[in-house]
Each structure stands twice: as structure tokens, then as C-alpha cells.
Write a sequence for this structure.
């Protein structure tokens, strides 16, 4: 397995949940990490807490806004001096039956979970070109393969993300770029809002488990690319 020590990674949506666990895991592996999220306070809090583990740079940015994404990557260049790894993690879901969904809700799913991944990947690929390669990990979802009622907008964004990931892989693998989509089932985070996950969440995947898999994928020898990987709660609620 390859060492990640000294590499530079950007993790979108790194202020809580899965992204925060990934940032922490990479810091423990000696990676210099940049995170973003929309909230200035939550970015600062994450930097205060995780910055004790290793070099962590935080920048408030909404990844559904191409200008904000460009600013984030320029700030990462200046703060950390390059980019080897991008984890497209920032994501959300507005769950509504198709006929009841507003155009703003539809756009929110697609702008964040699909367009935002393109904006960030585009910035990363430009930097990988200069450095001779890099690795992109996209946090997709089992909802990218399994449609469900009320999930049309979220399903469409994650189905789209899976197709985008694979095409990007085919576009750039001969440029030493590796691309992986990780598709978890239910993870114990604040996804859907703090009140969404109430009661016993011990049956769910822990964010740290997803982070462990991200680290495993990134540490694969350069000859090997894990391109798609599913994670499920071993014993989901009956
Ligand atoms: N939890 C699950 O069950 C589950 C299952 C499968 C896949 N996933 C996927 O895993 C990823 C992370 O989800 P999570 O469960 O960790 O969610 P979460 O706990 O709600 O965390 C989401 C993170 O993304 C950031 N974020 C949200 N909108 C953003 C935007 N427009 N620009 C930049 N950052 C933004 C949030 O910070 P701010 O709010 O401050 O912006 C936060 O740091 C998502 O792509 C989700 O689709 C989650």
C-alpha cells in the first residue's frame, strides 16, 4: 500500500458528518487537508478542533457556486501549495414526490450533488495535470442505483454522479488520474437535518467507517484503481 504522508487533499463538506471523518482520517495519515463548507463558523470550529491533529486549512465555500469553488481552490493553492487528492463529499437531499417538488428543490439536489462535483473536479484536474496525476473520490450513495419514492431529485443527482464519475475515469486514467465512487447506505450523520436521525442509530454505518474505506482506496498501489464501491449497514432495521 502507498503512504499518504505529505500528500495534499481537499475534502468538500468537511465540517461535519462523513466529510469531517474523512478529513480527520487523512490528517492522521499525514495528509495536509483543506476543507470547505458554507458556514464560516462551522469551518472555523472544525479547523480549531481537527487542526490539532495536523495541517488543516478551512475556507467557507458553497460548492454549488462555480465562482466560490474557484476561490476555494485558489486559496488551497496558496495555503497548501498544490493538490493530489479531491474528495467530493459535500451533498444534501431534498426528498419530495416529483409532482410536489419545486424547481428550487430540484435544482438544489442537482446543483450541489452533481454540478458541484463537476466544478470541483474540473479545478482538481487542472492541478493534477501540472503534478502528473491525482485521485478523486466521490461520495455517492446507494440512492445512485436504487430509486425510491420521494427520492426523484436525490436519485437523479446520484445516478448522474455515478455516470459522471465513470466517464471522468475513462477520460483521464491515462493521465494518471484515478476516480472512485463510494456508495454508502444509511450513515449516522446529520444528513437531512439534526432532527432527522432520532433514536437508535447504532445499526447504521459510522462516518469513520466510510473514512476508513476512503483511506484504503487512496492507499492502493498506483497500478490499481478501485472505481466503485458499495457499503451497507450489515444488519439494517427490519
Ligand atoms: N448520511 C447518509 O446516510 C448518507 C448515505 C449515502 C451517501 N451520503 C452522502 O454523503 C455525503 C455527506 O453526507 P453527510 O451524511 O455527511 O451529511 P451532513 O452531515 O449533512 O454533512 C454535509 C456536509 O456538507 C457541507 N455542505 C452542505 N451543502 C454544501 C454546499 N452547498 N457547499 C459546501 N458544503 C456543503 C455541510 O456543511 P454546511 O452545511 O456548513 O455547508 C457539511 O459539512 C453527501 O454527498 C451525501 O449525499 C450520505
Amino acid at each position: 500500500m502507498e503512504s499518504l504522508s505529505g500528500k495534499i487533499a481537499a475534502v468538500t463538506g468537511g465540517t461535519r458528518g462523513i466529510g469531517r471523518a474523512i478529513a480527520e482520517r487523512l490528517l492522521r495519515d499525514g495528509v495536509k487537508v483543506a476543507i470547505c463548507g458554507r458556514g464560516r463558523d462551522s469551518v472555523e470550529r472544525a479547523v480549531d478542533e481537527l487542526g490539532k491533529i495536523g495541517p488543516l486549512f478551512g475556507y467557507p465555500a458553497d460548492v454549488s457556486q462555480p465562482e466560490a469553488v474557484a476561490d476555494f481552490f485558489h486559496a488551497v493553492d496558496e495555503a497548501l501549495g498544490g493538490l493530489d487528492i479531491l474528495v467530493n463529499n459535500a451533498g444534501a437531499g431534498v426528498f419530495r414526490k416529483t409532482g410536489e417538488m419545486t424547481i428550487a428543490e430540484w435544482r438544489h439536489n442537482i446543483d450541489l450533488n452533481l454540478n458541484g462535483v463537476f466544478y470541483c473536479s474540473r479545478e482538481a484536474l487542472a492541478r493534477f495535470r501540472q503534478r502528473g496525476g491525482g485521485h478523486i473520490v466521490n461520495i455517492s450513495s446507494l440512492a445512485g442505483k436504487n430509486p425510491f419514492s420521494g427520492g426523484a431529485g436525490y436519485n437523479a443527482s446520484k445516478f448522474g454522479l455515478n455516470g459522471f464519475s465513470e466517464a471522468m475515469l475513462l477520460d483521464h486514467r491515462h493521465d494518471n488520474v484515478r476516480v472512485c465512487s463510494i456508495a454508502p447506505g444509511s450513515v449516522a450523520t446529520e444528513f437531512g437535518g439534526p432532527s432527522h436521525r432520532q433514536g437508535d442509530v447504532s445499526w447504521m454505518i459510522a462516518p469513520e467507517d466510510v473514512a476508513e474505506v476512503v483511506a484504503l482506496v487512496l492507499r492502493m498501489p498506483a497500478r490499481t484503481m478501485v472505481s466503485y464501491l458499495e457499503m451497507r449497514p450489515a444488519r439494517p432495521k427490519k
Q: What stands out?
A: The pocket of NAP is lined by residues 12-13, 15-19, 36-39, 42, 62-64, 89-92, 112, 139, 141, 184, 186-187, 189-191 (CB under 6 Å). Residues 8-231 form a domain with the Rossmann fold fold (CATH 3.40.50.720). The mean pLDDT is 97.
